[in-house]
Amino acid sequence: MRILLVEDEPDLGTAIRRILHQHKYVVDWVQDGTEAWHYLTLADVSYTLAVVDWMLPGLSGLELCQRLRVHQYSLPILILTARDSQADKVAGLDAGADDYLVKPFGMEELLARLRALQRRAPQFQPAQLQVDTLTLDYGTHILSTVAAGRIEHVELTSKEFQILEYFMTHIGHIVTSQQLLAQLWDLGAEPTSNVVAAQIRLLRRKLAELGHEHRLETVYGMGYRFH
Ligand code: CA
């Protein structure tokens, strides 16, 4: 799952990004409302949700929400702000925000609000993703399968989890390294395509532990395909 974080306070932005990374989210962090608009409207990147500070240079968080809704972007938006008057909350929600978190807040509360937003939006994933006998658990990041009546399981790293989730939601499609880089690596991280190949090798090793390495096929000269 990919989150756009829009926060102009460096310390807070750094702390939020760190905790989101720890919880296996892909995070792009920008510090300006206008830049956020450009990120959210990029054609080749889709965000699961946005965490947006109210007071920002460029567009304010409220203006960003309004503009997104006017242009029919439906991604869930969590507004962060030091304002906590009733009137401000109403203004935030009226602008199209889905939820509202008053600073200072605990990271556990932020994570809980994000989980709630994911649950509320029907297009988002349930607790587990299942393909045939493979089950990927969003809570534990454990991949499991039933073999000869026994459950076998293996724990995935953040990146392995993100890549496998992408494949399991694009069954049978040829997926290029460029697609994986665009969707699963933070923008500005400037990874090379070797990074993708290396991660695919690691993921195959995990799949092999469960006897499922045949599912991830290399399509020579094009990319990868998951069956
Ligand atoms: Ca701010």
TrEMBL record:
SUPFAM superfamilies: C-terminal effector domain of the bipartite response regulators, CheY-like. The keyword Transcription applies. Residues 2-118 form the Response regulatory domain. Keywords: DNA-binding, Phosphoprotein, Transcription, Transcription regulation, Two-component regulatory system. The modification 4-aspartylphosphate is found at residue 53. GO terms for biological process: regulation of DNA-templated transcription. One of its GO terms (cellular component) is cytosol. InterPro entries: CheY-like_superfamily (IPR011006), OmpR/PhoB-type_DNA-bd (IPR001867), RppA (IPR049767), Sig_transdc_resp-reg_C-effctor (IPR016032), Sig_transdc_resp-reg_receiver (IPR001789), WalR-like (IPR039420), WH-like_DNA-bd_sf (IPR036388). One of its GO terms (molecular function) is phosphorelay response regulator activity. Signal peptide: none annotated. Residues 126-227 form the OmpR/PhoB-type domain. It comes from the Bacteria. Residues 126-227 bind DNA. This is Response regulator.
